[in-house]
């Protein structure tokens, strides 16, 4: 048909467009976008038959004063409740511990089980093969591997090696391969931790709260396993974790005012 001398064609009558090859850069960009979308979209919907329910733990979480009591000599390890029972070796190390040798005065990061209770924000990111936890305290990042990889044999680090799995609507994380730390259990009470330390964490959601029960085993210093349970509240909307930026000179400054244990 024509309109004012201009011929129009029905869509069904239009000839097919010639095939045109996509530019190589466009193909690569599309492939990358599809791959990333696949990786960053773990299924948080209710699991079907034979599937494991994956709780939504992602986000920024507040472990500060509004969420729980501040850490100290009697928190989260409470005398008469869950305070660790030390063996003879642990008692001997505790007896000779001097506050001035605590690694924190040299900007050495906190490790489990202390870093989880420090009153700072943390950010959780979930991927199909891992969960990343970034702590505002000490600028630390822990990786919970979900892909079943083997634990390294001779790789001991401050944060250890963490293997995780989803079970019963929770994230279960088992961490081993810690380096020896003179204050690795608790610097407030001068309790060390050894290469045999094992930390088990269970994370789950209760409404808008993130909950965790943490259990520590260390036969070199503890007579029996000990545990505490704590929570985080949802962080302010849009909050970005701040850099800790520990300065070794400033961190070591309090040593000048500590009373030496030995003279």
Summarize the structure.
The protein has helices at 24-39, 88-96, 248-252; strands spanning 2-3, 6-7, 59-62, 121-126, 130-135, 140-145, 161-167, 170-176, 181-186, 191-193, 198-206, 209-217, 226-234. It has 263 residues and is mainly beta.
What does this structure look like?
It is a single chain. This protein is mainly beta. The protein has one domain. 11% of the residues lie in helices and 29% in strands. The chain has three helices and 13 strands; from the N terminus they run E-E-H-E-H-E-E-E-E-E-E-E-E-E-E-H. The strands form three sheets. The protein has a nine-stranded mixed β-barrel. It has a two-stranded antiparallel ribbon with strand order 1-2. Strands 9-10 form a two-stranded antiparallel ribbon. A hairpin with a 4-residue loop joins strand 5 and strand 6. The protein is globular, with a radius of gyration of 26 Å.
Query: What fraction strand?
Result: 25-35%
Give me the count of strands: 13
Low-confidence spans: pLDDT under 50, at least 5 residues? 1-22, 32-46
Radius of gyration: 26 Å
Mean pLDDT: 86
Instruction: Characterize the overall form.
Output: globular
- Overall tally of structural domains: 1
Biggest sheet, spatial arrangement of strands: 3-4-5-6-7-8-11-12-13
Specify the biggest β-sheet.
Answer: 9 strands, mixed, barrel
Cα distance spanning the termini: 106 Å
> What string, H for helix and E for strand, traces the elements in order?
EEHEHEEEEEEEEEEH
Structural class: mainly beta
Number of helices: 3
Helical content (DSSP H or I, runs of 4+): 10-25%
């Amino acid at each position: 048909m024509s309109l004012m001398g201009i011929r129009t064609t029905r869509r069904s009558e239009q000839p097919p467009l010639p095939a045109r090859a996509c530019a190589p850069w466009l193909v690569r960009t599309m492939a990358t976008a599809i791959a990333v979308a696949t990786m960053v979209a773990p299924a948080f919907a209710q699991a079907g038959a034979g599937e494991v329910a994956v709780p939504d733990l992602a986000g920024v979480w507040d472990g500060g004063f509004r969420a729980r009591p501040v850490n100290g000599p009697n928190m989260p390890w409470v005398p008469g409740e869950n305070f660790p029972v030390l063996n003879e070796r642990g008692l001997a190390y505790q007896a000779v511990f001097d506050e001035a040798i605590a690694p924190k005065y040299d900007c050495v990061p906190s490790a489990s089980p202390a870093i989880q209770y420090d009153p700072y924000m943390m950010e959780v990111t979930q991927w199909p093969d891992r969960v990343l936890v970034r702590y505002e305290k000490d600028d630390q990042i822990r990786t919970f591997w979900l892909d079943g990889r083997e634990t390294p044999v001779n790789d001991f680090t401050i944060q250890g090696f963490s293997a995780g799995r989803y079970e019963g609507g929770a994230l279960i994380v088992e961490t081993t391969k810690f380096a020896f730390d003179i204050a690795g259990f608790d610097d407030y009470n001068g309790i060390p931790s050894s290469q045999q330390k094992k930390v088990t964490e269970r994370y789950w959601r209760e409404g808008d709260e993130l909950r965790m029960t943490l259990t520590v085993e260390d036969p070199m210093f503890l007579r029996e396993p000990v545990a505490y349970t704590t929570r985080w509240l949802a962080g302010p909307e849009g909050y970005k974790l701040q850099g800790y930026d520990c300065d070794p000179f400033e961190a070591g400054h309090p040593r000048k005012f500590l009373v030496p244990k030995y003279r």
